[in-house]
Amino acid sequence: MDQYLQLALVGAVSAVVTYVAIRIWDRLRLKEAIAKAREIIARAEQEAESRRREAEIELKELALRYKEEAEAELRKIREDLHQRERLLDKRQDALDQQSEQLRKQERIIENTQRKLAEKIQECNRRSEELSKLIDLQRQTLHEISNLTKEEATKRLLGMLEQELQQEVAAVVYRHEKRVAEACQEKTREILLSALQRYAAAHTAEATTSVVDIPNDEMKGRIIGREGRNIRAFEKATGVDVIIDDTPGVVVVSSFDPVRREVARLALVKLIADGRIHPARIEEVVEETRQELEEHIKKLGEEACQEVGITHVHDQLVRLLGRLHFRTSYSQNVLRHCVEVAFLAGMIAEELGLDGLLARRCGLLHDIGKSADHEAEGGHPKVGAELLKRYGEAEEVVHAAACHHETYTSERPYTAIVAAADACSASRPGARRETLERYLKRMEELEQIAIRFPGVEQAYAIQAGREMRVILRAKDTTDEMAAKICRDIVKAYESELSYPGEIKVTVLREIRFTEIAR
Questions:
Q1: Residue 39 — φ and ψ, nearest 5°?
Q2: Which residues, including other chains, have CB under 8 Å from residue 238's CB and lie 6 or more apart?
Q3: At 500, is the pLDDT very low, low, confident or very high (cuts 50, 70, 90)?
Q4: Is the pTM above the cut of 0.85?
Q5: Beta strands at 208-212 and 466-471: parallel, antiparallel or unpaired
Q6: Which of 347, 352, 329, 334 is nearest to 420 (CA)?
């Protein structure tokens, strides 16, 4: 019995101990859970606080960016307003000058009318005197010579006809001289008015483009292992990449401005991307070439819209855009064409012709320069063929073909385009070629021609577009002259690089002189 009692007592104690231990364990777990909960809450609060700060920073950055964009847009609007204000001032000045010229012309017309009235009165007076002289002479002849009326009339009419012929010749000469002076003055006024009404900016480009790089390490990545990257780039773009000791720059060189621009833009993209290897180079160059083609088309469309002509073939629009990357004596050819278009339109309107057709002729007159390296012949011939192929009017084709010719054209729009082209090229600041370069090119052309046997003198004219070579007649024959002409042309083609064509004219003259005594 005691044993059972002891066992029961032990069991009760064990139960109590177990219960107490379980309660203590539960309390410990509860404290641990509360501590973990507090830790989680603290971390959550810290994370919420950090996110709140990040959100505040992002909002501040966004506000700053919006503020900068708004300020930039405001500056742009202000610049546009200033530019428009300057343009309006220029137009007002041009209108004032025009009104002044009109007043001068009105005064000239009034003076001319007054002089004509005086001349008419003088002619009437002289006619009356002449009638009196004729009557007096008729009576005198009849009394002195005893001539019949028919004979006296015949002699008198002969003398009168001779005098009238002399007077008519003098009057015609005076009128011709006056008309020539008036035409010359009117032409000068038209050209000056057109030049004053239109003012254009001129841009110049070189044969190299400079690309900035972040550090000299990038030069090694552009070159690549054993030069494979730079070779792949030059092969894909068709340009020369010059990497020297100059820090922070890489030079892209090419005589083709479109290729040079493709290479420059592609190199900028590759440097920004950082992945430079042959496959990536080909991909970026092709992508850039397509983007530039779209940009070229956009430039052509903008030029057509600026001039105000429509219904231009898409290929002609692209060729116009390519002129943006072409220069002639440092003058941007596309801007030159736009300027010629406006000048031609103004001159045509002053003459009472179709200003829209004149602007079309002026805009497309140098279209051959965008394709003269792909076809044989100078840019007038190439441009005329292109315009004819794409359905342009005969006046436009003829203006492109003959705007550099020296003979007088029977088509008025060709003469107008030639005059506008000369005005644009001769505008101060339009062509910034130095005198030293110009003289050096002329000397090279003349020196190459003079070194051939039998050549006495050589002259470069038309800014180097034409050569006149004079041979010694006693040392050459006509057959030798033809051969010398071909040899000079071949020498120019092999030794010089020049845009367009050089016309070579060889002259051989024999003179025979005798003296009669």
A1: -65, -40
A2: 254, 256, 259, 263
A3: low
A4: no
A5: unpaired
A6: 347
